[in-house]
Each structure stands twice: as structure tokens, then as C-alpha cells.
Write a structure and sequence with these properties.
607 residues, alpha+beta, eight-stranded mixed beta sheet, oxidoreductase, flavoprotein
Length: 607
């Protein structure tokens, strides 16, 4: 059905699927804020202005509307991945920490107002550059000076220097700094503190900032930061319910150092919940560009001179498969956001989860999994789309390199994805080892790979099989030391963590399809959902065969299934491209047109 005649109900339903439950007026404001020409000047002033304009359509209390918050960062990623990264840190980590962990002191309220209005840039300094897994062993100290009530923030040595995007020295910057709170020589665990890093005249007293660190994959103002007995007002301690009595007695509702770290880092849940929406937006845009390129680019190969690239099955599987994965990420964005909303309404107190390689899964296993899986799948999708667009895929104007660099960098940023998968897999295996579970899941005849229900059933069964397999291997080891027991099993644990995340996304796709009311839209999305499952199974074929979750004949049949599903998807491409593409002034749809509009020409021999 042509776009002009498509029923309004179907367009609205597709918009909600792609952009979440945001009204069109908000999306229009967001579009205007991002499409406005960059202000005069450069550096920090320009960045502050762009952060201010991005935040203007949002409610004053950002966290009252997670749908708008995630959509704003998703659109920012499509328009400019570097702006998105700065905004994620500014809004979700810096402002998020102050709002969720801080009190209502006048000092903090003024900091929030400055950050919201674009008078200051927000920074989050958690990683310490000199050691691995630094989040589990923070060494930066904030020691209470009982004579003044101030906290003295100090970096003990070079290895404890903080790493972050704090190199914008020409504007005020406010950082949230996780550090060990010490009173009277006693370490009370890791809390967050608010520290002003720079003013209009550069670094503030007690703050030392390195020269810029080059990172071409994701250009931003990365530096290392050290503190030299920097004094912070008592109100800049984001106490999160903890208190220090006049006699020096310390009380913390978290109950332990591990519990405190989990509570301090729970601000990360907002970032993890936003990342699937960001990954979905950039993947949709990349897939639309790759499909449009393949439709319009004619080849001169010997087999069929003059046919469009999209005629080739290899190209169909790649670019339509990318479109299918982008759809799955769009479904995951809804699942992650709903989970975040649920976690925000839950009480902060609760059981403390043991930490393994990182603290992230102890904060929220499913949200950490969403983050890790989303950025990896988006990195794969954007890299494949870039490759399938030839030279055009590498041009700055088409942004595919920027999308790929953003997600590739986020594989370690925001919580290392591999460590997250290790922790998930090992936790699942250990839990299974404590209880006998020989049940077979999804017994009976499986649906065809052409059905959207096939992959959710397969991945659910594979997760069960992998868990039992790893638990059995762990139970059979004679090693008394956990490291010796787990060291040879970590690769399998990582795969199990990935499959756990695959199963979350697969269930999100099923829910999205079940909730689709418009029949024409459902007819377009069903083969797209099934194609995502087939492509995911092809990527997991080695593990699926090794555990005998699928047979060799099942794997061999996937290529034909992919081709049949591509044939079913192709008639719906006008609808999908219209729905998945962002406005042309934010990101181009046609790679070749984007190049032509950036060129000027010089002709020789003209006076």
C-alpha cells in the first residue's frame, strides 16, 4: 500500500514500535532540536549548546518519562554518535547519579539546574586507567575532614587516575566521581561524589587533567583526571541514605561494601536501558541505507550484467538480514525500557548479589545483558551494512563508520560486554549445579524456521542445554580454587551469557508481534521476525550443533529458509524503509545522493 494511503492506525502503530510511546509532537521537537544548524564557535561552548537543545524537549525531571529519554538519545545517535555519547554521560550517568543518589540541598539543586540548562557539562569518572576491573577495586579516596565537614578527594598514584570525556577545558564541567569514603581511617565503601572539574578559566584547584587521548573510532574529549586533595562540600556526597552522626558513627542502609557498590552503580541501569534504543535506531538507519543502495546500484558482473545488487541472494541475506536484526533490536528497546521502569519502582533495599568479573550483573542481570547484546549486534549490523555499500559505506557523509565505531567502542564502555557475559554464564551454571534439573524444554515438534516462533523455542532450549552442560563440567572439576575451576570454562560461560541475552531479545520479538493489531503491518513484520531468528541461528550454528540442539540437516536448511523469508520481506520494503528511516536532514537514506550533495567541482581551462 502506498504511504499516502496507508491507514493512520497502521502508521501510528509502526511509529510506536520504532520510536516507543512518544507522541508525534515530541518527535517533531526532537527533530527540530537536532536538525538546527550548529551554533557559531567550536569546542565546549558548541557542545553545551547542543546538549541544551537536545534536553529542551525533555521534561525537567528527565527520569519521569523513560520513553522520551531513550528516544532522545536514539535520535541523537543517528544524527551524531559523538553527541549521543556526551549526552548519555551528561544525562544518564552524571545527572542520573545526582538525582537518584543525592539529596535536595541548595548546592546540588543549583548543579542540577546548571546541567539541565546547558551552563555546565556533565561527566562521569568511574574507570581508573591503571588496572583491569577497576570498578571492583576503586582506589580514589574521599576522606572526611571532621574539622570542616568537607571531603578531601585524592588520587593515591598514577594508576588510579580516572579516565573519561572531561577534556572540554573551556567550559564548566561537573563530574560525578565514585570514590572510597573514609572516616577516621575506616573505609566505608564506594560512594559517588560531585566534583567541579573546570570553570571558564580551565581546571579548578586540586584537579589535574591530562592532554587529550586520541580515539578515532569515537571522537570525544577523552583525558585522564587526577585529584590532589581537592576539597568538596559535605553536600557533594551523594549519600543515598547513608549518614555520619556528629560523634562520627557511620550508618549505611546498604549494609555492606558490596551492597553499597551495587547501590552506587545502579545509575548504570538507565544507560543500559537506553542502549538498545540507540542500537536499534542506528541499525535501522544503516539497514535502510544498505537496502536502498542495493536496490539502486546496478552491477556489471558476468552472471547478470545490469541487475540491481539486491537481486543477488548473498546481498539479500546480508542487508535484509540487517533490517531484520534492526527490527529485533527495536523490540528489545521496548523490553529494556519496561524492565528499567519496573526496577525504578522497586525498593532499593534487597539482597546483595555476589560480584564476579564486574559489578554490572549484580546491579541488574537482564539490563546488563541487554546492553551487551545490543551493542554487539548493532556493531555487527552497521559493519555489514558499511561493507555492503562499497566505497560509499566508508564516506563520512553516510555515517556508517561512525555508527560502527560508536557501538564497537561501547563493547567495553558502559560495562565491558565480555565480562557481563562471563558473569551471566557462570551464575546460571552455578545456580543449575545447586539443583538437579533434567527436564527437557519445548518437547515435541518444533515449528518451521519460517515461523517467528521457531527461534524463541530453539534459543530457549539451547540456553537450557548449555546451562546443564556447563554445570556438569563445573561439577566434574576437582579444582578447589574457583579460578582453577572456572579458568578453562570461561569461553563456554561467555557463550551461555550471550545465549541468555539472545533469549531475552527473542521473547521481545514474540511480544511485539503478539501486540500488533494492524493486519497489513503484522504481515510485513512476521517474515522479518522469522528472518532475524534464522540469521541468529546461522551465527550460533557451531554451538547449536555441538550441544545437538539442532541437527546438521537443520543447519543446512537455514540458507533456503533465509532465501524464502527474503522473498516474503521484499514486497514490504516500501513500508519498512518509510518507517525505519529517520528524516533526511538528520541522516541520509541514499548513500550516493549524500556524496553528490557534498561535492564541489573545479574545471580546468576556465578563466
Amino acid at each position: 500500500m502506498p504511504p499516502a494511503h496507508r491507514p493512520t492506525a497502521a502508521r501510528d502503530e509502526m511509529r510506536r514500535l520504532v520510536h516507543g510511546p512518544c507522541d508525534p509532537a515530541f518527535l517533531s521537537e526532537l527533530h527540530k532540536a537536532l536538525a538546527t544548524d550548529a551554533p557559531a564557535g567550536s569546542g565546549g561552548r558548541q557542545l553545551l549548546d547542543r546538549l541544551r537543545r537536545l534536553g529542551e524537549p525533555l521534561p525537567y525531571d528527565l527520569f519521569d518519562d523513560p520513553a522520551r529519554l531513550t528516544a532522545a538519545h536514539a535520535w541523537a545517535a543517528v544524527a551524531d554518535p559523538s553527541l549521543c555519547l556526551a549526552a548519555l554521560v551528561h544525562h544518564l550517568l552524571c545527572l542520573g547519579s545526582i538525582v537518584q543518589l543525592g539529596g535536595d540541598s541548595v548546592d546540588l539543586t543549583s548543579r542540577v539546574a546548571a546541567l539541565r540548562s546547558g551552563r555546565a557539562k556533565g561527566v562521569y569518572l568511574i574507570t581508573e586507567a591503571g588496572q583491569a576491573n577497576s570498578h571492583l577495586a576503586t582506589r580514589t579516596r574521599a576522606e572526611l575532614d571532621p574539622s570542616t565537614g568537607e571531603f578531601v578527594l585524592h588520587t593515591p598514584d598514577e594508576a588510579a587516575a580516572k579516565f573519561g570525556s572531561a577534556g572540554t577545558l573551556d567550559v564548566p564541567q561537573t563530574a560525578v566521581v565514585p570514590a572510597r569514603l573514609v572516616t577516621g581511617g575506616t573505609d566505608h565503601g564506594v560512594f559517588a561524589f560531585v566534583a567541579d572539574l573546570t570553570g571558564d578559566g580551565g581546571a579548578l584547584p586540586g584537579v589535574e587533567i591530562s592532554s587529550p587521548i586520541g580515539l578515532g573510532a569515537l571522537p570525544l574529549d577523552y583525558v585522564q583526571v587526577r585529584f590532589h586533595h581537592a576539597r568538596l562540600p559535605h553536600a557533594h556526597w551523594l549519600a543515598d541514605g547513608a549518614r555520619i552522626a556528629p560523634d562520627g558513627t557511620f550508618h549505611d542502609p546498604a549494609g555492606s561494601a558490596a551492597g553499597r557498590l551495587q547501590r552506587t552503580l545502579r545509575v548504570g541501569q538507565g544507560l543500559w536501558a537506553a542502549m538498545p534504543a540507540v542500537a536499534a535506531a542506528t541499525s535501522r538507519q544503516a539497514a535502510v541505507q544498505a537496502v536502498t543502495y542495493a536496490q539502486g546500484r546496478r552491477t556489471q558482473g558476468r552472471l547478470a550484467p545490469g541487475v540491481p545488487l539486491l537481486t543477488y541472494r548473498t546481498q539479500q541475506r546480508a542487508v535484509l538480514g540487517a533490517l531484520a536484526d534492526a527490527f529485533a533490536l527495536s523490540c528489545a528497546a521496548h523490553g529494556a525500557r519496561a524492565l528499567w521502569e519496573e526496577s525504578r519502582n522497586a525498593p532499593a533495599e534487597g539482597s546483595v548479589t555476589e560480584m564476579g568479573f564486574s559489578p554490572w550483573t549484580a546491579v541488574s542481570r537482564p539490563l546488563a545483558a541487554y546492553k551487551a547484546a545490543a551493542v554487539r549486534l548493532a556493531a555487527r549490523v552497521t559493519a555489514e551494512c558499511q561493507r555492503r555499500c562499497g566505497l560509499s559505506g566508508h564516506l563520512d557523509a553516510n555515517r556508517l563508520a561512525g555508527y560502527h565505531g560508536f557501538h564497537h567502542a561501547f563493547d567495553t564502555a558502559g560495562g565491558d560486554s565480555q565480562l557481563i557475559f562471563y558473569d551471566i554464564g557462570s551464575a546460571l551454571a552455578e545456580a543449575a549445579g545447586r539443583k538437579a534439573d533434567d527436564r527437557k524444554t519445548d518437547a515435541g515438534t518444533s515449528p518451521s524456521p519460517l515461523s517467528p516462533g521457531w527461534w524463541p523455542m530453539v534459543v530457549r532450549r539451547h540456553r537450557h542445554d548449555l546451562t546443564r552442560h556447563l554445570a556438569k563440567r563445573l561439577g566434574g572439576t576437582e579444582a578447589a580454587v574457583p579460578f582453577e575451576a572456572w579458568n578453562p570454562l570461561l569461553e563456554d560461560a561467555g557463550v551461555l551469557g550471550e545465549v541468555y541475552a539472545d533469549s531475552l531479545i527473542a521473547e521481545d520479538v514474540v511480544r511485539a508481534l503478539a501486540g500488533t493489531q494492524d493486519r497489513d503491518l503484522a504481515r510485513a513484520l512476521r517474515p522479518l521476525a522469522a528472518l532475524h531468528g534464522v540469521m541468529a541461528a546461522r551465527r550460533r550454528s557451531g554451538s547449536l550443533l555441538a550441544l545437538e540442539t539442532l541437527r546438521p540437516a537443520d543447519i543446512q536448511a537455514l540458507s533456503d529458509a533465509a532465501d524464502r523469508l527474503c522473498d516474503e520481506v521484499r514486497p514490504h520494503l516500501p513500508l519498512l524503509i518509510e518507517a525505519f528511516a529517520h528524516p533526511a536532514d538528520l541522516a541520509p537514506t541514499d548513500c550516493d545522493t549524500a556524496l553528490r550533495t557534498t561535492l564541489t567541482w573545479t574545471r580546468g581551462g576556465t578563466a
